[in-house]
Write a structure and sequence with these properties.
Number of helices: 12
Number of strands: 17
Number of domains: 2
Low-confidence stretches: 83-100, 105-155
Mean pLDDT: 78
Distance between the termini: 68 Å
Shape: elongated
Radius of gyration: 27 Å
Length: about 425
């Protein structure tokens, strides 16, 4: 720490990470002409110490410091008996080519600890400034100068691994899925029972998926005929819910998981996938496994080609999405407790545990709470590690936000999956 009375102080800022990963935060106080105002400038630098997640953490703090200044000003002005009004604030993000980015926040604001606002900075909040611009205006009209920040090169296997699990609303053609189930259902499968067991009223009431099909089938949208086929065709009446990884659903959407047995399911290369987005004006569309569009009329005429439904609920209180495997004739095989599945579980567990031990897991709180649904919408040209994590998720809730605690809990849940014992493999056909 370096401290210059009434001028500045500089500290390492590890934010809970090892000291070697700490950035540097420098705060400077400058008395402005005319008195009554002190400019408070904060500069955060040495972002390169964050390694592969530097650009991501940089973006998080770019938003966070403005909120911190806002809150500090409100608290200090309230303590001084002044209204919560403040001068215009500016955020400047600068990055010289080849250098670590630097973030500077400069504001004619009062910070509540050790900063006064008349002449030289003084201790305590008793000299609040003659504030003149409402903070609501600061938030909506703040001056922001953002220079280009070079994206930090992604290193290591994590980006490639997360990219393999990422799903977007415009890129969802997949042929391998994973579904958690219970020991009881596994015993039924070993006894020759069907893979697809859920129906329109499983659990005693219609599921959101079946309710959506019912509403569309009775409506007048262009997908009404296809909705009726998905709802009424006997070959498509039973289904199983799945995703493209195990870690993204291992703890469930609600308070409980779906079981500790993981099933791998493979679709026929000739299968089609229907996208169901109930909130859209045109809620149904169809693609083949190469991502090419299939006309709705053709899907209605050939429903036997439909293998799965990509069901999107990104406007729910807890947004989620899922694959609904709905046609046993388009399943070329499924398996459980195989060496390949054990290897997949080990790979996913290693991934989340390594992420938990990396600066990746120490996002600023504001960045941690950002929703995943905007990332789901479309595959971007370039994306950081956090964007890839969010694109891999099925559920946009607290349990899957990439904090250290959550990532470790995911690792523990994957460690509890059933492995070993007699494998069960079925292929092909119903």
């Amino acid at each position: 720490m370096m401290y210059e009375p009434y001028g500045s102080f500089t500290v390492d800022f590890p934010f809970g990470m090892p000291a070697k990963s700490a950035s540097v935060v420098e705060s400077c106080f400058t008395s402005l002409e005319g008195g009554g105002w002190t400019r408070v400038s904060l500069r955060q630098s040495r972002w390169g110490r964050f390694g592969k997640v530097a650009a991501m953490v940089f973006d998080g703090y770019s938003k966070g410091w403005g909120v911190i200044f806002d809150g500090a000003c409100r608290a200090a002005c309230s303590a001084a008996g002044r209204g919560s009004r403040g001068r215009r604030m500016s955020l400047s993000r600068r990055c010289a080519r080849g250098a670590s980015p630097a973030l500077t926040v400069a504001a004619g604001l009062l910070l509540g600890v050790g900063v006064g606002c008349g002449g030289a900075p003084k201790a305590g909040p008793e000299l609040a400034p003659p504030l003149g611009v409402d903070l609501a205006e600061v938030r909506s009209g703040a001056v922001a100068e953002v220079a280009e920040v070079e994206e930090v090169e992604e290193r290591g296997p994590w980006a490639a691994e997360l990219r393999s699990y990422a799903v977007y609303h415009d890129d969802y053609a997949r042929d391998r899925f994973y579904s958690w189930t219970t020991a009881e259902q596994v015993e039924a499968l070993r006894g020759g029972g069907p893979l697809l067991v859920a129906t329109a009223t499983s659990g005693g009431r219609p599921t959101p998926y079946t309710r959506a099909l019912e509403e569309l089938a009775e409506g007048g949208s262009s997908g009404a005929e296809l909705a009726r086929a998905l709802r009424e065709d006997p070959a498509l009446s039973r289904h199983r819910y799945a995703w493209v990884s195990g870690f993204a659903t291992v703890m469930g959407l609600g308070p409980r998981g779906y079981g500790d047995e993981l099933i791998a399911i493979d679709l026929d290369p000739q299968a089609w996938i229907v996208k169901l987005e109930p909130a859209k004006d045109e809620p149904l569309s169809v693609i083949d496994l190469a991502g090419r569009p299939v006309e709705l009329a053709r899907a209605v005429a050939e429903p036997a080609r439909i293998g799965a439904v990509y069901h999107v609920r990104d406007h729910e209180p807890i947004p989620y999405r899922e694959y609904v495997i709905c046609n046993p004739a388009m399943v070329t095989g499924w398996s459980l407790r195989t060496p390949a599945l054990a290897a997949e579980l080990a790979r996913e567990r290693r991934l989340v545990e390594e992420l938990a031990d990396d600066p990746f897991a120490w996002l600023p709180e504001l960045a941690l709470r950002e929703p995943s649904t905007p990332v789901w919408a479309s595959r971007p040209v370039g994306v950081d590690l956090v964007g890839l994590w969010r694109a891999s998720l099925a559920f946009d809730n607290e349990r899957y936000r990439p904090s250290v605690i959550n990532l470790r809990e995911l690792g523990d849940a994957l460690a509890g999956a059933a492995v070993g014992g007699a494998p069960l493999v079925s292929s092909p056909g119903p």
